[in-house]
Amino acid sequence: MEQLEKKQQGDNHLCIDFLDKYGPYGKLDPVTRRQQEIKRVVQFLYKCKRCNPCLVGDPDVGKTVIVEGLAAKIVGQAVPPKLLGNKVL
To answer: Global pTM?
Structure first.
């Protein structure tokens, strides 16, 4: 059990909880790019029972913008009710 806890603590540096870090304080910048991709991620999350999309691509192509846009939509409650209250990592 201790090994699992240590592993989980060690993995924390690999991801950011966008809602905890930015959402409650309104620090998310308005997203004006990648609206189509954000919409597709929302549709994917809504339609799947157990889905964990993973955005893959070269550096500086907009992956983080898509994740921030999704977080902004969740904070602004601009997503289906099923997605409200979920974490974005």
So the answer is: 0.71
